[in-house]
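$ ./design --mode recover --in tokens.txt
reading tokens...
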């Protein structure tokens, strides 16, 4: 983690001990975070299981004191976390799956996925949209046929929830240098991003399944396969909005700007998409906004899947927008390696 040219992993240590020293610093910091009262949702426990901790192999000058290592260079080894050396011995990399498992556990607990009360809270929003707004409008706009139209749109709406959640999480990671700490300690970037995104995708999938189950009570059990398929296909939509949140976090460096961007994105795009009404019956200015609204194409694509047809234009636009956002998000995520300490 670098800030103003300072790398705590190399400070006061012999060059050969840079990698092991960085891991020792990480181990001590995260062990303190796990047992010293810090938020467990923003730290993860990195302990060399079955081995003497790296910190005990350094003397007061930061020189390795292992037997037979007069050069001050720490011996390399593979531990239970899958760590290994590459290149000249100063870079530590961890296995992809080992890193993902450790980080995902922390991210899932930080999101409260181990708490039944948290799940009950997560189900309130989709049920409110469908049961209150959808059912309320169905009485005047077409009964079960209208509910069959609304259900896929409400499922896609839940994918947008990951936008604000990802922004909030990544702000913490960037502000306190946690992302830089993990990445400079050898965690693969793809593994890190997957661990951050996975809990949000799980939440979305659970919400979509709840909507499918409730909707089937009103439109018939025959609609369940199509709605379940909508939820699964909607994972790509959820990925799009989560990656967009990552991009916004990288571009906007203060809370005010981020809140402004989210405010002008969520509600306008939601109500300018064919979730509760058909675009071709909307006023002209709404139709113009929907042309540049990615949510419009995502809703049309998912609704087509639920009806057993493929909307080629909507699918192509949705796939292209996901590809563009993925490339930009990957480039933006590379900057997380360096701590900015910006709010």
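writing sequence...
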């Amino acid at each position: 983690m670098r800030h103003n040219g300072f790398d705590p992993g190399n400070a006061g240590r012999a060059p050969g001990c840079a990698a092991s020293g960085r891991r020792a610093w990480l181990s001590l910091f995260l062990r303190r975070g796990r047992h010293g009262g810090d938020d467990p949702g923003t730290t993860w426990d990195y302990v060399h299981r079955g081995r003497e901790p790296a910190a005990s192999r350094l003397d007061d000058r930061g020189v390795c004191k292992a037997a037979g290592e007069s050069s001050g260079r720490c011996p390399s080894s593979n531990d239970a976390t899958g760590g290994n050396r590459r290149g000249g011995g100063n870079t530590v990399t961890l296995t992809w799956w080992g890193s993902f498992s450790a980080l995902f556990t922390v991210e899932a607990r930080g999101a409260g996925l181990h708490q039944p009360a948290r799940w009950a809270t997560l189900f309130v929003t989709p049920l409110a949209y469908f049961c209150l707004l959808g059912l309320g409008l169905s009485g005047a706009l077409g009964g079960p046929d209208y509910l069959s139209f609304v259900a896929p749109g409400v499922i896609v709406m839940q994918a947008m929830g990951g936008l604000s959640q990802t922004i909030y999480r990544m702000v913490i990671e960037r502000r306190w240098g946690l992302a830089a700490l993990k990445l400079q300690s050898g965690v693969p970037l793809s593994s890190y991003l997957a661990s951050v995104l996975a809990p949000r995708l799980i939440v979305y999938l659970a919400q979509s399944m709840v909507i499918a189950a409730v909707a089937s009570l009103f439109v018939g059990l025959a609609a369940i396969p199509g709605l379940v398929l909508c939820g699964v296909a909607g994972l790509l939509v959820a990925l799009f909005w989560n990656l967009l949140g990552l991009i916004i976090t990288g571009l906007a460096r203060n809370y005010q700007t981020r809140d402004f961007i989210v405010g002008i994105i969520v509600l306008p795009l939601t109500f300018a998409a064919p979730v509760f009404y058909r675009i071709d019956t909307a006023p002209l200015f709404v139709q113009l906004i929907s042309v540049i609204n990615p949510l419009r194409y995502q809703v049309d694509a998912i609704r087509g899947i639920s009806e057993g047809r493929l909307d080629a234009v909507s699918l192509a636009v949705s796939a292209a927008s996901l590809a563009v956002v993925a490339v930009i998000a990957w480039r933006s995520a590379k900057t997380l390696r360096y701590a900015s300490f910006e709010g």
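exit 0
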